[in-house]
Amino acid sequence: MTGPLLELDKVALHFGGLAAISDLSISVNAGEVLAVIGPNGAGKTSMLNLVTRVFEATKGRILFKGQDIARAPRSKIAHLGIARTFQNIELFDAASVLDNLLLGRHRFGAGAWWQQVLRTPGLTRREEDHRAKVETVIEFLDLSAWRNARVASLPYGVRKVVELGRALCSEPEILFLDEPASGLNPEETRDLAFWIDDIRTDLGITVVMIEHDMSLVSAVADRVVCMAQGRVLAQGTSAEVQAHPDVISAYLGT
Ligand SMILES: Nc1ncnc2c1ncn2[C@@H]1O[C@H](COP(=O)(O)OP(=O)(O)OP(=O)(O)O)[C@@H](O)[C@H]1O
């Protein structure tokens, strides 16, 4: 594939009279960790909600591997290989860690109804494949101690890891993380930095991370985009973006 893995091309999103995103163009290269930073209300989560089709762009194109997905059905997004986590963790609290992770496999299907009724060998094989993949994710994220625990009983930091695990179970090509470090203690944030690096290096998954914690951004991002008022204000390395005068003014509100 030539060109970026994902490209937002002059995208806009309006809520009534409010322009949450205006003329936004961002490229994501395969294999990179891109951090998106910006002050509150800059449009970072809206951008992610456009790519994952929670919202529909008012204008512009969103190209994933060259295909415009700006108006694709929401149900198609996971099938294309795009996964995400949420700012406010979205898991099934009453279910176990294992069952939540198995839900991450839904894009690969549960088998036709007749296979389920007849318990065909094909279905059994498919279920075994799902279990095996989930076990690799449990090992990768060091979740084995929590495998059978109900999500509701888990500490906040572990729930965040489970949500990351569920996204990985869908074997995405690109993974969006919405404020992955929020609510984590320094040790958990350090673990997260290692995992993000391993997700890119060992699993070959491209990562786009919306994050306020600049220590995490500096530790893992190859490139940083700073958004403000629904647009790109600056982009470059973490050091370049943090030193940019427009970025400093946007954070100071001047
Ligand atoms: N569903 C919605 N309806 C109306 N306005 C919305 C909606 N979602 C977001 N907005 C508005 O769009 C703008 C961008 O919000 P968004 O949540 O994308 O910013 P953000 O950069 O992610 O902020 P934060 O860092 O605080 O999460 C804000 O003015 C917000 O109030």
Describe the fold and architecture:
It comes from Pararhodobacter zhoushanensis. The chain is an alpha/beta fold. It has a domain at 1-81 and 174-181 and 208-254: Rossmann fold, CATH 3.40.50.300. It has 10 helices and 10 strands. Helix 7 (186-201) links the parallel strand 7 and strand 8. Helix 3 runs parallel beside helix 6 and helix 5 (121-140) packs across helix 6 (156-169). The protein is globular, with a radius of gyration of 19 Å. The structure holds adenosine-5'-triphosphate. Adenosine-5'-triphosphate is lined by residues 15, 18, 20, 38, 40-46.
Largest sheet geometry? 6 strands, mixed
Count of runs of 4 or more consecutive helical residues = 10
Q: Mean of residue pLDDT?
A: 92
In the CATH hierarchy, what is the architecture of the domain at 1-81 and 174-181 and 208-254 at level 2? 3-Layer(aba) Sandwich
What is the string of helix and strand elements? EEEHEEHEHHHHEHEHEEHH
Specify Rg, calculated over alpha carbons: 19 Å
Query: Can you tell me the overall shape?
Result: globular
CA distance, first residue to last residue: 42 Å
Small molecules held by this entry: adenosine-5'-triphosphate
What percentage of the residues does DSSP assign to strands (E)? 15-25%
CATH superfamily placement of the domain at 1-81 and 174-181 and 208-254: P-loop containing nucleotide triphosphate hydrolases
**Adjacency order of strands in the biggest sheet:** 6-7-8-3-9-10
Percent helix:
25-40%
Which spans of ≥5 residues are poorly predicted at pLDDT below 50?
A: none
CATH first level of the domain at 1-81 and 174-181 and 208-254: which class?
Alpha Beta
Number of strands: 10
Q: Could you tell me the CATH topology label of the domain at 1-81 and 174-181 and 208-254.
A: Rossmann fold
Q: Structural class from helices and strands?
A: alpha/beta
